[in-house]
Specification:
This protein is mainly alpha-helical. The chain has helices at about 5, 10-25, 30-40, 40-70. The chain is built from four helices and no strands.
Length: about 70
């Protein structure tokens, strides 16, 4: 990365990739350092909460669907 890239804020896709990688535990040290130096904590918190809510809704929907087809 160039000097200019080090000062540029993270894009939405970079933040989303970091949140997803961290959620499954495969975040690299290099990217974690990049996140801490260029990212805003509030953005990661908001994305983390949204990802968690979406994940819970998807799991809930899958369980409801399986129970519906099982006749319960």
């Amino acid at each position: 990365m160039s000097e200019q890239d080090d000062n540029k804020p993270l894009t939405f896709l970079e933040m989303l990739h970091s949140v997803l990688a961290a959620a499954i535990g495969v975040q690299s040290g290099k990217r974690r350092e990049r996140d801490f130096s260029r990212g805003k904590p509030s953005h990661f918190i908001i994305l983390g909460i949204l990802f968690t809510a979406l994940f819970v809704l998807v799991i809930f929907s899958i369980v409801k669907l399986v129970l519906h087809f099982a006749g319960a």
